[in-house]
Amino acid sequence: MTSPIVRFAPSPTGKLHVGNVRTALINWLFAKGQGGKFILRVDDTDTERSTKAYEDQIKADLTWLGLEWDDTFNQSGKFAQYDAAADKLREMGLLYAAYETADELDRKRKIALSRGRPPVYDRSALNLSDEEKAKLEAEGRKPHWRFKLSGNRVEWKDLVRGPQSIDTSSVSDPVLIREDGSYLYTLPSVVDDIDAGITHVVRGEDHVTNSGAQIEIFRALGGTAPEMAHTPLLVDAEGGAFSKRLGSLDMGTLNGRGILPMAILSLLAKLGTSDNIEVRETLDALAADFDFSKIGRAPAKFDERDLLALNATLVHAMSFDAVKDQLAAISPEAANEAFWMAVRENCQTVQDAKPFADIAYGRIESLIDDEDAAFIAEAKMLLPAGEVTGESWGDWTSALKEKTGRKGRGLFMPLRKALTGQEHGPDMGTILPLIGREAIERRLSRA
């Protein structure tokens, strides 16, 4: 097999979210696993909505994730090539001017549906004489340009969906150029794929219906259509539409929340596949696992709980050196190894250490129930003398158990609530020395 050349083609009109990243990742894993190339194509033909700031952020996010590209280019620098391709299609009689307004097209669709026919464009523009076209343009109308489909059946073997076919007589001739002269996605994408030697187009299954037209455009321009793989789209944990969630799942937001790149990549690489969802430490490990045959046909369910669980697994294994700068930003006192080793098993992100830093080094509101007040007073009297160490908790609770008869939750929970202000948290034996005698006595004195 020839080493694949793939492309990821984001539009710099918004932020990079998990849906985009999943497409980029699948392309990257496939290419790198086969020793191929990953090209970043910036689809900025929409010059009004595209911004350099979004482009820079997309590149920064991909770099943060480790999805480095072998080459990159912007579509906005290739309009002359797109114009030449359009001229070639016109000369071949495959690109024709149409003058219907949006309202007129909508009316035609409704009439077709009311008569039980598919809402396919009727190609009436092909019957216009030069005089009729001139009259329409004199009225101020500007044409949009449609590609004339062959009406034949286009077939391909999809790497995910298996054998696929589109009867191009059952779909409308696609618009390639708008009334204002701007290009829609289709023609520039085909031109670029031919120029870049793209061997595989890997994208979401919402593009399946476009494939028949695109394959015919490849052939008309003298190119060979790449192999294709259309992956199921993401849905939420309940199987519902995912689009409403994307605003909170862009890379900048996830990074700011302390979600690690390999948690994101490990989840997105395994969603919708036959592999278990579990952490991989490197992209190379994910690439070694990748195979299109593992991708199922059902929608891929994205559950943020899975993302947090994977992130927690990574956080629990992080060394102090890896997190000390983040801990210092939380609290200067928290930037010590004993604290991190005491709390990391209770953190899904490094930022989750903040409340524990407050417990260890700050002032917290003790939680002491009325029925536990006498017990807490007894506990203060029985606190072992001298330096508080890792053995102090065991010695202290043993003495309390013997003196009061309490055991289990009735013994440990009142102490945890009084000392930490919480019902859950790090092991008390490890957190107690960090709190220190002075703070322990002060918190117990609130009984």
UniProtKB/TrEMBL annotation:
Domain Aminoacyl-tRNA synthetase class I anticodon-binding, chain residue ranges per copy: 342-447
Gene3D superfamilies with a match to the protein in the record: 1.10.10.350, HUPs (3.40.50.620)
Limits of the Glutamyl/glutaminyl-tRNA synthetase class Ib catalytic domain: 6-276
Motif ('KMSKS' region): 241-245
GO terms for MF: ligase activity
Pfam families named in the record: Anticodon_2 (PF19269), tRNA-synt_1c (PF00749)
Record keywords, A-Z: Aminoacyl-tRNA synthetase, ATP-binding, Cytoplasm, Ligase, Nucleotide-binding, Protein biosynthesis
Motif 'HIGH' region per record, residues: 10-20
InterPro entries: aa-tRNA-synth_I_cd-bd (IPR045462), aa-tRNA-synth_I_codon-bd_sub2 (IPR020751), aa-tRNA-synth_I_CS (IPR001412), aa_tRNA-synth_I_cd-bd_sf (IPR008925), Glu-tRNA-ligase_bac/mito (IPR004527), Glu/Gln-tRNA-synth (IPR000924), Glu/Gln-tRNA-synth_Ib_cat-dom (IPR020058), GluQ/Sye (IPR049940)
Reaction(s) catalysed (UniProt annotation): tRNA(Glu) + L-glutamate + ATP = L-glutamyl-tRNA(Glu) + AMP + diphosphate
HAMAP family found in the cross-reference section: Glu_tRNA_synth_type1
Function: Catalyzes the attachment of glutamate to tRNA(Glu) in a two-step reaction: glutamate is first activated by ATP to form Glu-AMP and then transferred to the acceptor end of tRNA(Glu).
Stated name of the protein: Glutamate--tRNA ligase
Organism: Henriciella pelagia
